[in-house]
Specification:
- With 456 residues, this protein is of the alpha+beta class.
- The chain has 13 helices and ten strands.
- The chain is elongated.
């Protein structure tokens, strides 16, 4: 049988534990300094921004690089900023993908309307819609206005009036939706979800027999008869300007901006905090699991190894200013699970050998156990890294960043399973033995001093 790594190795890992601890401390120190000085290059999903889906003709000769350059030029022209983050990915909806060529654009630009202009628009809407109308402009995120009237009136008439006012303000692409309209939308999508679950209540025709066009026609007819007082107006200025810029750049090859979705900085911060809390909960759960399955003295080694892996992986992203986005949080959680699996395999062999070789010292047992699992650890990590390296070299954009996180995390995780998690058991065992010896010596000293009695 072919052996890439011999199964009878006798490396003295524990004898070099101080050296490897020093290497780990240096890597952690560099990572923390980089995080403190340079910080993370947060992606749009954490920093806030806009996601656009652009559609081109199927035979259009266009690539991601050209689109990214065109978007950057557009942003620089409209905002004056030259350091705005722009990322372009291929996008496949799974339907009609052969008829169109789609790309998804991520950019930090959320709005082309200044805060002052947004406030002025709200005041103009109040004056144009009459007394008793409350208009609230969203301060962060997409250009959205919440309009509340004092009484209910015909939805179509008020929608038309709101659109006319925005047109007079210079905005031609505005989506106006009433509360009643949103309710009809929810009913429609609820019907679709029920149909997908094959839930039928009346034995009638499938809800899918009604097309989206038919639903919109019915919705318009119902709203023409409905009354409402709550409306939301979304100015799609960014979408419109991007369409103009892409049409000028690519001509007839460009078709349209199919959708535009904004993420505010506040939402992005919440997403980042939620991701970090998820990692914290994972570490707490692992601490409890190791303590229950093995022994308490095993838990700190496993958890410190995982913290070690996470800090160094994040440190690499900070040091090289690689974009840190939501997929990277997923990669870090994957790394935590992968590294823990390696550590569990080593710990299981240590526990088995401690029972089998009671006459050997703990250092010898750990050395033996790490050597016995070395082949499995390196081969498993090596084959996994082959796949990750392929994605890292051949992938692009966000998937490449995800692969980088896995590459760094798995490499460091394999290192920590051997050189960090196991040696910590030795240090903790020595610590507990010293405490026990000190307590025993104290008890002996207390009992050796006999009480003195005085006789008269």
């Amino acid at each position: 049988m072919l052996e890439i790594i011999k199964s009878d190795t006798h490396y003295d890992f524990m004898g070099k534990k101080k050296t490897f601890f020093a290497i780990s401390l240096v890597m952690i120190f560099v990572s923390i300094v980089s995080l403190a000085v340079m910080g993370l290059n947060l992606g749009i999903d954490f920093r806030g921004g806009t996601k656009l889906i652009l559609a081109y003709k199927a035979d259009a000769v266009v690539d991601r690089g050209e689109i990214q350059k065109a978007i950057q030029e557009f942003v620089a022209k409209t905002t004056g900023a030259t350091d705005i983050q722009v990322d372009v990915q291929d996008f496949d909806t799974g339907a009609d993908s052969s008829d169109l060529k789609r790309f998804v654009i991520y950019t930090q630009v959320v709005s082309l309307i200044s805060p002052e202009k947004r406030t002025a628009n709200a005041e103009a809407l109040k004056q144009g819609l009459g007394e008793g109308v409350r208009v609230e402009a969203v301060e962060e995120g997409e250009d959205k206005y919440f309009i509340s009237f004092a009484d209910r009136a015909n939805v179509t008439d008020r929608t038309t009036k709101i659109r006319e006012l925005f047109t007079s303000l210079g905005y031609s692409d505005v989506v106006v939706e009433s509360e009643e309209g949103r309710r009809l939308d929810m009913e429609y999508y609820k019907t679709i979800n029920l149909a997908e679950a094959e839930i039928t209540t009346d034995g009638g025709p499938s809800p899918f027999d009604k097309s989206k066009e038919e639903f919109l026609a019915e919705k318009e007819a119902k709203l023409a008869q409905a009354q409402d007082k709550e409306f939301t107006a979304t100015v799609e200025e960014l979408k419109l300007e991007v369409e103009k810029a892409m049409s000028e750049k690519f001509g007839d090859s460009f078709l349209s901006v199919e959708s535009s979705t904004s993420v505010s900085a506040t939402v992005g911060e919440d997403l980042l905090n939620t991701g970090l809390i998820a990692m914290l909960y994972a570490l707490i759960g692992i601490l409890a699991y190791i303590a229950l399955r093995f022994d308490f003295k095993y838990s700190p080694g496993a958890v410190l190894a995982l913290i070690h892996d996470t800090i160094i992986t994040i440190g690499v992203f900070s040091l090289f200013q690689v974009q840190f986005s939501q997929p990277i949080i997923a990669a870090l959680l994957t790394v935590i699970g992968y590294s823990l699996n390696d550590t569990i395999v080593v710990y299981d062999r240590i526990r088995e050998n401690i029972t089998k070789f009671r006459s050997k010292s703990l250092v010898d047992v750990i050395n033996m156990s790490v050597n016995e699992t070395l082949s499995r650890t390196l081969l498993t990590s090596g084959t996994t890294l082959l796949v990750v390296i392929s994605i890292l070299l051949l992938g692009g954009g966000l998937i490449q960043d995800f692969a980088l996180a896995l590459f760094v995390g798995i490499t460091v995780g394999t290192y920590s399973s051997i050189f960090v998690a196991s040696p910590i058991i030795v240090y903790l065992d020595d610590y507990f033995k010293r405490r026990a010896a000190a307590a025993k010596e104290k008890d002996s000293a207390a009992t050796s001093v006999a009480p003195q009695t005085t006789t008269k």
